[in-house]
Structures are given as structure tokens and as C-alpha cells.
Prior knowledge:
This protein has 19 helices and 27 strands. The chain is an alpha/beta fold and 608 residues long. It has 3 domains: 3-244, Glutamine Phosphoribosylpyrophosphate, subunit 1, domain 1 (4-Layer Sandwich); 251-438, 3-Layer(aba) Sandwich (Rossmann fold); 448-608, Rossmann fold (3-Layer(aba) Sandwich). α17 links the parallel β23 and β24 (493-498).
Amino acid sequence: MCGIIGFTGNEKAIPKLVEGLAALEYRGYDSAGVAYFGGGILQTVKAKGRLTNLAARLENIAGEGITAGIGHTRWATHGEVSDVNSHPHGNQRTCGVHNGIIENYSELSAYLETEGYTFASDTDTERAILLIDFLYTRTGDPVRAMQEAAERIKGSFAFAVMFSERPDSIYAMRRDSPLLASPSDVGMFIASDISAVLGYTRRFARIEEGEVAVLTRDSIEYYTRDGKRLTKEYETTPWNPEAAERGGYAHFMIKEIHEEPTVVSGTVRPRIRDRLPYLDLPLLTAERIQSIRQIHIAACGTAMHAGLIGKYAVEKLARIPVNVEIASEFRYRNPILQPDDLVILISQSGETADTLAALRLAKSKGVPTLAVVNVPGSAIAREADAVLYTWAGPEIAVASTKAYSVQIALLYLLSIHFGKAMGTITEAETRNLCEELANAHQYIEKSLGLADHCRSIAEIYKNHRNIFFIGRGRDFALSMEAALKMKEISYIHCEAYAAGELKHGTISLIEKGTPVVAFATESAVFDKMISNIKEVRSRGARVLLFVPEGYAIPEDTADDIIRLPDIPEVFMPLCAAAPAQLLAYYTAVELGCDVDKPRNLAKSVTVE
Ligand code: AGP
């Protein structure tokens, strides 16, 4: 997703813009650019491809006296990847960058053409910035121009805009797409997320919809929709600069996989007191839980897969019906929601457009909402009725790993909390489960010891173009996440399948040597899984079996076996996640893929 950085202060702006854009690379992009006031005019430098291409074009710009500027990494939505379509856009008077999608850009084009405007690019952004320019020529007031433009624009946006007549100022506003304003000792920043400014400040204020922020060298002013001054409180992120660095690892992804024991422990242990869940959620008293008709979990990608694990845990421990849905489906199918339901939104970034829309739909129907989110102060966290933060720290790699592990760990704790309230588990069982969960990090640590075994299997898998992942029950949910991890970073086509369903058609795709990864941690269906493995092996498949240490496996069941640490079965996905992620990681490394920034992907999908 696009990244925005802006700076105005008492030091050179260009190095801070490039530094900020580098920190935002993880969001995913295909071109970059900056704008600054230099030599008495607004200047722009843009380059498609990696940030190094832009940095090379900025090399000869001394930057002395340039103390204000805006920068952007573009994830193309309207218009091909090219220098001219890169941001910033505008003219000599008004220049800006944008994250989001302008839905009525054709209408804006037609209107601006009647006012004499022409366009250099194919982008919706250029139309929006020139609309701001037009309104500025009419009002002479940047704040009013921005607010009137917001009234005319349909769609999502985060804008950072400069005006040549106000060279030291930056004007910002947003709708749906995230934007933060951050004061520091060296000047004022605007950014899509806090990671872009962590080297200078940990303070931030979220710009709310309808507000305009005006950054000058030594102040940030906020204006409401009707132009009144607004005072905002600054929050301080718990994240520190080191947390957003690679710390000697080859990639952020491998670093973040290795952080799993620590962040899982750091997320659940503070919420377990006297071996009982301590969630401090007034929304979820025992009475409220007992009245829940149905839980709906809406999320995307990995977060949705975590929701599936949560479903199995809640239904097993609390016997409350749980429906898990892809947020982009949930938001448009007019779901049947009742006020005594509960909607849980899961999101690492807290900014995913579809998940945010699902939240807003639930609230519009009067259904209580609980967010399970990693990024402090993000939109989903702020708009939900209650939030349970995962404390995974910044997750920089596009492929989500530690966030998945802390999401399922927190969902386990929530399911224990529900089970205790429903009386479907005894107090003794509650305490035992909490104790096991509080010590889960030891088992995860042990599963990281399987890295070399995963790496050796990756050397085989890298040669294949199709891989199947199969499982039953929660192992099917695990297969879905393992398949996503593998395909999104190695570009090998992968398909997760319910093991019992294969024989109803898909097994026709199995031929000699086809890799099949089988998860068999559910004891209740273990024998069935062994039969399903035999079905594919008898047709030539090469099977990798993930199975708990203590399970007896019939002779000649699989070609490779990864034995997982014997954590209590219900928590087994916590131990299987890391090896599955490592398998994907080493396969992608073997193939020379861009592990942390896979092609076409964005870390936070803030557009539909
Ligand atoms: C996971 O590896 C992917 N990067 C992607 O599926 C991601 O989980 C999804 O876009 C949801 O993001 P969120 O958790 O920030 O809402």
C-alpha cells in the first residue's frame, strides 16, 4: 500500500524523506518520489522501481536550505507503473501525494478540464491535487481548499500537500486511509504509520476524518471540518526504533519468526492472573457472554486464518457458534446480524479497508464489536467497541508470521475466557489451560529448532510448481495459512484442502512426485488423516507429515516427518505455525525471491 512521509523543520528535509520512505517500503510499492521547495519553486523528483532509483536521482541535490518536503511510495491502482504516474502530482503552485482510491476521478477530470486544467498522468491522484489547487486559487486559503476538496471527492484518501506560497508548511487530511502527525525535536512529521518517524519521535496524533493538519517548522495546528482550531492529545507508541530494524537477521521475516516465543509470551502472560484469564473487557462480562447468540469473525488473509483457529477453540471450549468470514465477502452480503451477536475483527495493521468496512457494518446494525489488532491507535482499534491488542511489535515483512501466532494465542485466551463464563470448562480446567498457554512460548522455542529440517525439505520443494496442504478440523485451518505463506513469498502455486474432501475431485491432480504437506495433530481424526495420506501417496504424492512427537505413525506413512513439540493438542497450531513459516521462508530464499517484499503485495491493504 502507498506510503506517505512529510517533514518541515530546522534540518535538511530530503534525507529524512528518503529515510522515512525506506521505513515504509514494507507496505509494498512500485515507484517513489519526493517534492520540496528549492530555488524558489516546488520541485519534484520521481522514479519507478525500487527506492534506490529515487535515491540515485537525489544524490546530486545538496539539500542545503531545503527544510520542507513530502515523499511517497506508490502502489499502483490507477495508471501503469511509470515515472510520470509516480507521486507527487500537481503544478508549480500546488503539489501533493495520496494514498487511497478516488472513485469519482473521471467526473473530477471533466470538471477541471472545463476550468482549463490539463493532465500529465493517468492517475486519480493528479485530479485530486489539481482540484485542491483549483479551490486554492478560488479561496486563497489552503485549509478551506482542502476541506472543500474533501466534500467533492468520493473514495478514500490520505493527502499531504505543499503550496509554493507557503513553502515551509505541509497540509494533510484523510478519509479511510491512515495518516499520523508527529512532533519531534528536529521538526514536524506527517506519515502513513509510525515506523517512518521512529528514528526521531515516538509521539503521534491520528488525524481524524474531516480534520486538516497544518505542519509548520515548529508547530502542528489542527482544524475541524468547519475551520475551527482543535487541540489534540499526542500518544506515544510502545515501539522503539530497534524493533523496526532487522537486527542482524537476513530478512525481517526470519527475525519475526524467531520473535514468536517472546511476543506470544508477552501477549498472553500479562493477561493471565492466578492462572485465570484477565482480559479487562467490560464488553465481555460473563452475563454478556452467556447471552451471545453467534460470534462472527471478519478478517482478511492470515488474520482470517487465525480467526479459523479461533473458531475451533471457541466452539470446543465454550460451545458458542462461530462464523468466520473473509471481510470483503462479509461486508457486501448483508449478513444476518443480531444485537446479541458479537463481531470480532482481526487485523495486524488495523487499517485493512475490508475489515474496517466489516466493523462499520456491524456497528451500523448495533452489534458489539471487538478488535484484535497489533498496531496501536489504528483505525480498527479506535472504532471498535473494545480492543484486545496483540503485542507483537512492528511486523515489517509483508508475509505475516509473528502476528498470526499472537493472534491465535490471544484467541485461545479469549476462548478460555468464554468457556469459563459459559461454565463449559471447570475452574480447574481453566487454570490448567491458562498455565499451558502461559508456557506455550517454550514449545514454540522448541519448534524453531526444526529450522534445519525445514530448510532441507525446502531444497526439494523449490523445484515444484504446485504444492498441496491438507488437514482436518483445525489442521485444515492451519493448512490454509501454511499454503498462503508458501505461495505469497515463493510464488509456487499452493492449495489448501480439507483432507476428507480431496477424493471428491481434486485428487485427480495428484501425480508422481506431487508434494503434499499433511498436518495431523487432531487425535480424534488422526486415523482418518493417515488414510487420506495413503490415498495421495498411492497416487505418487511425496508427503511431508507434521505430527506431534508422541503420536505413533504407521510404517511408511510419509516421505518426510516433522515431529512437533507435544503442547496440549488444542494449542498445537502455536507449534506448527513456525515450522510451516520456516518451510515457506527457506523455499523462497532458495528461489532467490524478495522474501520481505514479495511482488504485487502490500503489507496493509487500505484499498478495496
Ligand atoms: C499475510 O501474510 C498477508 N500479508 C495478508 O494476507 C494479510 O494477512 C492481510 O492483508 C490482512 O492484513 P491485516 O492483518 O493487517 O488486516
